Amino acid sequence: MRKIIAFMHISLDGFVAGPNGEMNWIKVDEEIFDYVGKRISKGDTALYGRVTYEMMESYWPTAGDKPDASKHDIEHAKWYNKAHKVVLSKTMNDIDLTNTKVISDNLANEIHKLKQSSNGESADILVFGSPTATHALIQENLLDGYWLFVNPVILGQGIPLFTGIKDKVNLKLLTTHRFACGVTELNYIVERQ
């Protein structure tokens, strides 16, 4: 069965965005892009909340076609355009876009079906950013892991990653990686009983 993994940049004090959704504090560079690119290239499905999906759709479909496109833009645009996209949204109607499915209700049942599906592989399904969608998955105990990029900053306020947690969740640390820019990757899997 495939696993649902939250892929987030996070501040040292646990925020994934500033109070108004600011993400200008996130450090990214070629080293991080290459590292992330290797992992996501093994998967074929991305999960987003509506806001993140709309942001991604406004940029990635044509990002690799621009004359000044970076190596990262070209590679990620190719992956994005081929990937199956799943959007958690109560406000989007069931849209008919290539490779895009909207889940608006029966979250637990639909996520279970998604985990069971595969195209001959069993690669992780990454939740890209999307704090509201991630909160819904956490509250329903549907996340199987966290792939966190801890940025060397304390925001003091903002949108927290962990909110509304009712029960303890045990995690197992799989890997860590320190980047030259000061970001530290922490890769956890949820330990189920």
TrEMBL record:
SUPFAM superfamilies the record matches: Dihydrofolate reductase-like (SSF53597)
Biological-process GO terms, alphabetical: riboflavin biosynthetic process
Pfam families named in the record: RibD_C
InterPro entries: DHFR-like_dom_sf (IPR024072), RibDG_C (IPR002734), Riboflavin_Biosynth_HTPR (IPR050765)
Stretches assigned to the Bacterial bifunctional deaminase-reductase C-terminal domain: 2-183
Source organism (scientific name): Xanthocytophaga flava
MF terms in GO: 5-amino-6-(5-phosphoribosylamino)uracil reductase activity
PANTHER family reported for this sequence: 2,5-DIAMINO-6-RIBOSYLAMINO-4(3H)-PYRIMIDINONE 5'-PHOSPHATE REDUCTASE, DIHYDROFOLATE REDUCTASE FAMILY PROTEIN (AFU_ORTHOLOGUE AFUA_8G06820)
Protein known as: Dihydrofolate reductase family protein
